[in-house]
Design goal:
Aminopeptidase; seven-stranded mixed beta sheet; 2 domains; single chain; 35% helix; alpha+beta
């Protein structure tokens, strides 16, 4: 119970997952898997408020050679805390992160009256796509993507998409190691590896893609927002196969059950190249997030 925070461990899954899966907005960070897999990077700790909703404490990793980062933040996936707890949280944290619209809207007027400034955090908006758009790639809007998929299919007639299952995890890990070598950096390597190793325990869902009989790519994610949204947490592939990522994107979207209306492909974090790439897939909207600070 707040103010006592505990580390995010696997033993908390049964407590956290049901409530987080019912949050309405589909914020990609607000899943048990997302919190657990990135617990080391952001030093996540968690507590329950008096209303039994969760308060998550974290720390932004320092940005090398910039003097930035290291600031502490807190997140409230399910509800806005009361004024007393908010005041207490701001005594030990620099800002309030990833405030969703469903948490903000009923509390906004009161929060502003109490002196909190609420700012759109565009760099952390999640990109939303219609599953049917990505599955079909129809019309002029997706002409270039469709051409890349067709080029892949013509160049690699021996290809296969399989649901990711525990017996295929070794092949997915093989792809991850090749991806790491190709890119020459770690990025989210540790979290991706742990996600594969805990695939069954975390109840994730994904696909693995074979080209000429060899594993070449995989993706992994989970259901959000009461099953309306599927979030892609990881997508990895080997270099040197033109159109592979576009094929993976289209093939996996087509394989998902139709009750998933949207795909959430997470945020761009202010990276202009990544923003441009995400825009080329024609998002139908965003999961908007806000940052809270005290005047």
């Amino acid at each position: 119970m707040y103010p006592d925070f505990v580390p995010v461990g696997l033993d908390l899954k049964d407590d956290l997952h049901p409530q987080l899966s019912l949050t309405a907005d589909g914020v990609s960070e607000f899943t048990f898997s997302g919190l657990y897999l990135f617990r080391k990077r952001y030093r996540y700790r968690i507590a329950r408020g008096p209303d039994q909703s969760f308060i998550i404490s974290g720390e932004q990793p320092p940005v090398p050679d910039s003097g930035e980062g290291g600031k502490k933040f807190f997140m409230t996936p399910c509800a806005s805390p009361d004024a007393e707890i908010l005041a207490s949280l701001f005594e030990t944290h620099d800002y309030w992160k990833n405030i969703s619209e469903s948490v903000l809207t009923p509390a906004r007027e009161n929060l502003e009256r109490l002196g909190f400034k609420l700012i759109e955090d565009r760099d952390n908006f999640d990109y939303l796509y219609l599953r049917s758009d990505l599955a079909e790639l129809g019309g002029k809007r997706f002409h270039k993507k469709k051409n890349l998929v067709n080029a892949f299919l013509n160049a690699y007639p021996v290809h296969e998409t399989r649901p990711l299952t525990p017996d295929l995890i070794p092949q997915a890990l093989e792809v991850l190691e090749r991806w790491r070598t190709d890119k020459g950096e770690n990025r989210d390597y540790e979290a991706a590896r742990e996600a594969l190793n805990l695939f069954s325990a975390l109840k994730l869902r994904g696909a693995i893609f074979f080209v000429d009989g060899s594993p070449a790519g995989w993706c992994l994610g989970e259901s959000l927002a009461k099953g309306r949204i599927f979030a892609i947490h990881f997508e990895k592939a080997v270099d040197g196969i033109k159109g592979l990522y576009q094929y993976m994107n289209q093939s996996f979207a087509a394989s998902l059950p139709r009750f998933f209306t949207y795909l959430n492909r997470e945020q761009d974090l202010g990276d202009e190249g990544l923003r441009q790439a995400k825009e080329t897939y024609r998002p139908c909207g965003f999961v908007r997030k806000y940052r809270g600070i005290r005047h």
